[in-house]
Amino acid sequence: MLAAAASMVASEGLSALLDLRESPVVSVGQSVIALTPGPIAHAIIEVVGTKDKPLAVASVVVAILLLGAVVGRWWLTRRLAAFALVSLLVVLAAAAVLTRPYASPQGVFAAVAGGFVLVAVLQLLLAPRANAHAAPDASRRTFIRTAALIAVATAVVGGAGQALASRRRRRQTVERARAALRIPARPVEVPAGADLQVAGQQPWLTSNRDFYRIDTALQAPLIDPSEWRLRITGMVDRELTLSYQDLLDRGLTDAWITICCVSNVVGGELIGNTVWGGVPIKSILDEVGIRPGADALLSTSEDGWTCGTPLDALTDGRDALLALTMNGEPLPVPHGFPVRQVVPGLYGYVSATKWVTEWKVTRFDDFEAFWTQRGWGERGPIKTESRIDVPRDGGTVDAGTVTVAGVAWAQHTGVEGVEFRVDGGPWQKARLGAAPSVDTWVQWTADWDAEPGDHAIEARATDATGKPQTDAVADVLPDGATGYPRISVRVS
Ligand SMILES: Nc1nc2c(c(=O)[nH]1)N[C@H]1C(S)=C(S)[C@@H](COP(=O)(O)O)O[C@H]1N2
Ligand SMILES: [Mo]
C-alpha cells in the first residue's frame, strides 16, 4: 500500500510539474464517473448528494491502495503475476488519460512513471527480505527503516505536488481574466415582497456561494474568456462561431430564474434562485436559421458532457439565456465560467450546460445525451413542487401560533397558491411572497395554531393553471421526484 501511495504521489507530482490539465488519478476518476451505470449513479447521488466528487476520488485512491497491497503480496511469491497486475494498472490509467477529450502524451508518461515508482519501491522494500533467512531481525529493522523513509518522502512529495497543483498557471490566468472582466454592472435588487423574511427560512435570492453545484467534472474546466468560442453547426442555414466579446457586444438581458436538478428529492436542496445575465438563445438561433425538421439543440461542454434541449423551449419566447453572469458577477468557475445555458422550466440535465462550447441543431431521434444514455428522461420539464423550511423537520416548537414557511415552484407556469395541512387534516391556505415572473420559486408562509403533541405537516402547491402538485410519490429517476413534502414536529 505504501508503494501504491508513493506511485500515486509521484504521478500526481509529475502532472503538477508538467502543468497537466488532469492527473492520471483524476482521469481514472472521470472514467469511473463516465462508466457508472445510471441507476448506480442515482443511488450514490441520493445517499451522498454533492459529496459525490470527493467520494469518487477517495474510492479511486482506496482501490489503488488495495491493489497495491495485492501487488505487494504477490511480489514475494508470484513475481510475474505482480508485474502483470502493475502493467494492467498502468495500461488502464493510460487508457483513462487517452480517452479524455484533452488527452496528452505527458499524461501517459505520468501514468507510466507511477508504475515504475510502484515497482521501484517494492524492490527497495522487499529485496532484502528475499534473502533474510540468516538474520530475520536485522531484515525487519531494515524494512521498517526503509518504509519510514519512503513514507516521509511520499508525504513531502505529496505536499509539494499539492502546492504546485494549486498554483497551476492556467487557474491563475483564468481567475485573473475573470477578475478583470468589466461587465456593465447592474445592481441586483430583490423584487419587493419576494423575500418574506421568515426567521430560519432560506433567502429568496440564493447567493453564488450557497448555490448548489451538480456536474460530472472532478475539476471544473478552466477556460480563458478570450479563448472561449461557441461553434454552432447542424441543421442551420448558416454555421456560426461566437466569441465572448461577440456576446458582450449583443448586450446582456437579465432574468430571474430558479434552476433545479432532476436529482432533487422532495424536500431537497438541489435548487437555487438567482438573476442571470446573458444573450437570449432565441436571438442566436434566429441568426443561424433553424432548418425544418429540427427539434433539439445538442450542446456540449468543453469537457465533453452533452445535453439535449427541446428547441420549443428555446424559441417560445421564454428567458432561455446563454448566460455570462450570475447574481451580477461573471459566472463563478464551478457554475460554468465563462458561458453556460439557463432555460426556465427544464431540469438542469436537459438545459443548463456549463462551460458550453458546441451547439448542434439536430433531432432527438438522432442522438442521446449524457444522462439520457444512463436512463433519465429525454426531456425534463420541471415538476410542480413545494418544500417546508420552517419549522425544522424533527424540531420542537412551543404550543400556540407557529409560523410555517417554505418555497414552491412551477417554473414557467407560475404558482397560484400553496396550502399546508397537519396530520392529514383540512388544507389551510398560505400567504405567498411576490414573484417577478413565472420562472422563479415563491416563498410562502402561514400561521399554525399548534396543539401539544407530535405532528406531521405536509404542503402542496397549485400552479397558475389551477393544477395542484400530485401526491403520487415518484423517485427522482427517470424524470424528477413528486409527492407532498412532509415534516415531523413536536409541540411542547
Ligand atoms: N458541463 C456540464 N454542465 C452541466 C452539468 C454537467 O455535468 N456538466 N450538469 C447539469 C446539471 S445535472 C445541473 S442540475 C446543472 C447544475 O448547475 P449548477 O451546478 O450551476 O447549479 O448544471 C447542468 N450543467
Ligand atoms: Mo441535475
Automatic annotation (TrEMBL):
State the superkingdom.
Bacteria
Q: What is this protein called?
A: Oxidoreductase
Annotated Oxidoreductase molybdopterin-binding domain residues: 219-371
Q: Which residues cross the membrane?
A: 55-76, 83-102, 108-126, 147-165
Which processes are annotated in GO (biological process)?
sulfur compound metabolic process
Enumerate the UniProt keywords alphabetically: Membrane, Transmembrane, Transmembrane helix
What GO annotations for molecular function exist for this entry?
A: heme binding; molybdopterin cofactor binding; sulfite oxidase activity
PANTHER family linked: SULFITE OXIDASE, MITOCHONDRIAL, SULFITE REDUCTASE
